[in-house]
Write a structure and sequence with these properties.
This protein is mainly β and about 170 residues long. It contains 1 helix and 10 strands, in the order αββββββββββ. The chain has a single domain, classed as Lipocalin (Beta Barrel), CATH 2.40.128.20. Keywords: Signal. InterPro entries: DUF6265 (IPR046232). This is DUF6265 domain-containing protein.
C-alpha cells in the first residue's frame, strides 16, 4: 500500500512539474480567450530569470492588441530586450515578439517574429505553446521551454509587481 501511495505521489509531483509548460499539438486549433480578460497582467514587473535581472511591462488591451516590453540585464549590462504584442484574432489570441541587442539590432529578420500560439487560459494563467505566465497575488511566474542542440530546457522567471508606473 505504501508503495502504491508513494507511486501516486511521485506521479502527481512529476505531472505537476511537466504541466507548467503545455504544447499545442500539430494541426490542432488554438485555445480560445480574450485579451480583455488579461487585466491581471497589466503593470510593471521585475525579477529574475536566465541567471540575471528581468523587467517586463504590459499595457492594457486596446483595439485587439496588448503591448509589452522585456529587458534582460546581467552584471549591470543590458544583454537584450523584446517588443511583445498579444494579438486578438477571432476567439483566440497569440503572442508575437522580436528580440533586440542593446544597440537595437534585431535577432529576427525584418518581417519575422517569434510567435507563441495559445493553448488555453485559466484563472490568472496563460498557456502558450512552450510558454506559460501565471500570477498569484503580486508575484508572477513564467516558464519558457528552450531547445538548443536538440536538448530541451525549461527556464523559470520569477517577478514581483512594482508600483512605480501607477498600475
Amino acid at each position: 500500500m505504501k508503495t502504491l501511495l508513494f507511486s501516486f505521489f511521485l506521479f502527481a509531483v512529476t505531472n505537476s512539474l511537466f504541466s507548467q509548460v503545455k504544447f499545442l499539438e500539430e494541426g490542432k486549433k488554438p485555445g480560445t480567450g480574450s485579451l480583455e480578460d488579461l487585466g491581471w497582467l497589466v503593470g510593471y514587473w521585475t525579477g529574475t530569470g536566465l541567471s540575471g535581472t528581468c523587467d517586463e511591462t504590459w499595457m492594457p488591451a486596446a483595439d485587439g492588441h496588448m503591448i509589452g516590453t522585456f529587458r534582460f540585464w546581467n552584471k549591470g549590462k543590458l544583454v537584450f530586450s523584446e517588443f511583445m504584442n498579444m494579438v486578438q484574432e477571432g476567439d483566440t489570441f497569440y503572442l508575437k515578439l522580436k528580440h533586440f541587442n542593446p544597440d537595437l539590432s534585431g535577432w529576427e529578420e525584418k518581417e519575422e517574429w517569434t510567435i507563441f500560439r495559445l493553448v488555453e487560459t485559466g484563472e490568472n494563467t496563460i498557456w502558450f505553446h512552450g510558454f506559460t505566465m501565471k500570477r498569484v497575488g503580486d508575484e508572477m511566474q513564467l516558464w519558457l521551454e528552450l531547445e538548443e542542440n536538440g536538448e530541451k530546457t525549461t527556464m523559470e522567471f520569477s517577478y514581483t509587481k512594482q508600483k512605480q508606473l501607477g498600475y
